[in-house]
TrEMBL record, chains A, B:
EC code(s) of this entry: 2.3.1.274
NCBIfam families linked: plsX
Pathway listed: Lipid metabolism; phospholipid metabolism
Biological processes per GO annotation: fatty acid biosynthetic process; phospholipid biosynthetic process
Entry function: Catalyzes the reversible formation of acyl-phosphate (acyl-PO(4)) from acyl-[acyl-carrier-protein] (acyl-ACP). This enzyme utilizes acyl-ACP as fatty acyl donor, but not acyl-CoA.
Pfam families in alphabetical order: FA_synthesis (PF02504)
Keyword Lyase: no
Protein name: Phosphate acyltransferase
Subunit relationships: Homodimer. Probably interacts with PlsY.
Keywords recorded for this protein, A-Z: Acyltransferase, Cytoplasm, Lipid biosynthesis, Lipid metabolism, Phospholipid biosynthesis, Phospholipid metabolism, Transferase
Catalytic activity field: a fatty acyl-[ACP] + phosphate = an acyl phosphate + holo-[ACP]
Main EC class the enzyme belongs to: transferase
Length: 329, 329
């Protein structure tokens, strides 16, 4: 039910995801009537792979996480996460209130043994491919041990999404020299250097795009600021491009002549492709879609959940963590 | 002497700055021969406003700040800052090693009374105008009091550069709600709310460009990451635009037809315009240029130094800080 657009986006997105993957089954959780209305007329072949689970409450986008957790025990969010807990679903995908989703997921699913705090990870478009970055906002203050655990989780996600055997891990810092940054990043660097992970050292903000690292590890404060800085800058540049191309009729001609270029760029950098941030470190798969996601965008978030569930990301995190044990003991 | 290109950039930039401002006088500090060679043939009207001060040493770009401070007492950097200290110069502009410049400036000039730590501030291109952001990397860990002092310094710089009577100040955070972030940003928010500054609350990464705030205050770790994230993303997008426009001859046509648009955008977002970060909080004006600056870029950094010196930024910071005294006592 969540997100800015509710089932009017999530239901068509579910149908689109079902169409693309014949083995996928989806349980739609929410208020019965609007969901049923939106399913009306869908292909029987798709409908046969859809279940409807009613939930009477809706967590609003500005509701406080702890309040949602306490008062909304029959919200679509809570019921969907309960389904993951009971094993009836392999992943929960939501466009709802991030804080409430994280608090509920953490309360119901708990963290994997050895992981203190879940983190939010997402793919970021880089110069030649992608970078995975975490934490993007779940934990504003982190210890060196947390950053180490983020590196383990990021390593698993990057390997599963791209088939990279040993993802290169960098810690975000304000310089590449070993002496840079505070004791948290320096201690985390030591933990990682002593681990079996493929740690490549400190990286800087521009390296998120340089392709130097497959996984960029940082605390949730810095990660969230960096992510929103990217969004803000990208929006400003796209806005400026539109303004310039529509300034006068001659410029329209330029836009027409540039159509193949603009279309390629739009396709290549379409933020909808990157929708679906994963809340890693939990015993189950929980994917957070952008609240403003459209159908294409939300279908991508479903796809992320599908891949993570198939690859068994939580189990793999647990395994990779155990392999590192000597380094963190 | 500093920067990636040394006097081959700084000397022509100085000549260009002198040409634009008839009241400007410049002392070039460095190795005599290369500087004199570059001045050869310059207009006598400009040469009459240039002084040459020899300095026998050069601080290299990868030299450790404390080592440069201890061992290079006759470096161009040190001599230039000494000139500010003695009153022979009103501002020092350098493209050299940032850490060494900061350490030397702090050692020689000291901070203004009431300012614990100098910070690096720069203009950032926003949707409709500019934002000033600090700290961009001088202090990776900051207290609430430091952030408060940054706000005072940012307020003075924004007012002086844009003539805004009461610059709107925001603290960078991971949400706009008062409960977001750690105790440092929350305590800083209380200090600012109780001050006479025009504090507007928490802002997020995308607000650096939204125009909501004139000054964005943050610690040097987050600020540096955000700044380099912008640089990395902008470079990636410009690179992609170039690649797409040169993919085949038809696309060249598109580029030609788009020439007015591309030229406008290039002019509007030219990073060279934004060169010249100020090391505020010191008793004198010290401007740091990008190490890779070209002549146009370095001339802009000189311009920043000129404006700050004329406005008397250090004195104004001291005055504005005194006005706030009741709030921080």
């Amino acid at each position: 039910m969540g997100g800015d657009h509710g089932p009017s986006v999530t239901v068509p997105a579910a149908l689109s995801a079902l169409q693309k993957d014949a083995d996928l089954r989806i349980t739609l959780v929410g208020l019965k009537e609007p969901v049923q209305a939106l399913l009306h007329g869908a292909e029987p072949g798709l409908l046969s792979r859809i279940q409807l689970r009613e939930a009477s409450q809706v967590v609003t986008m500005d509701e406080k996480p702890q309040e949602a957790l306490r008062k909304k025990k029959d919200s679509s969010m809570r019921v969907a996460i309960d389904l993951v807990k009971s094993g009836e679903a392999d992943a929960c995908v939501s466009a709802g209130n991030t804080g409430a989703l994280m608090a509920t997921a953490r309360f119901v699913l708990k963290t994997i043994e050895g992981i203190d705090r879940p983190a939010i990870i997402s793919r970021i478009r880089a110069r030649h491919g992608h970078t995975h970055m975490l934490d993007l906002g779940a934990n504003s203050q982190c210890s060196a041990e947390h950053l180490f655990q983020f590196a383990v989780m990021g390593s698993v996600v990057a390997a599963d999404m791209h088939g990279i055997a040993r993802p290169r891990i960098g810690i975000l810092n304000i310089g590449e020299e070993e002496t840079k940054g505070d004791s948290v990043v320096q201690d985390a660097a030591r933990l990682l250097a002593a681990s079996k992970l493929n740690y490549i050292g400190f990286v800087e903000g521009d390296d998120i795009f340089s392709g130097e690292a497959d996984v960029v590890v940082t605390d949730g404060f810095t990660g969230n600021v960096a992510l929103k800085t990217m969004e803000g800058l990208a929006n400003m540049l796209v806005g400026a491009l539109k303004t310039e191309y529509t300034r006068n009729p001659l410029r329209y001609v330029g836009a027409l002549a540039s159509w193949p270029v603009l279309r390629s760029l739009r396709k290549e950098f379409d933020p909808r492709t990157y929708n679906g941030a994963s809340m890693v470190g939990l015993t189950g798969v929980v994917i957070k879609s952008h609240g403003s996601a459209d159908t294409v965008s939300f279908a991508n978030a479903i796809r992320v959940g599908l891949v993570e569930a198939r690859k068994g990301v939580p189990t793999q995190i647990s395994n990779l963590l155990k392999e590192q044990a000597p380094a963190v003991a």
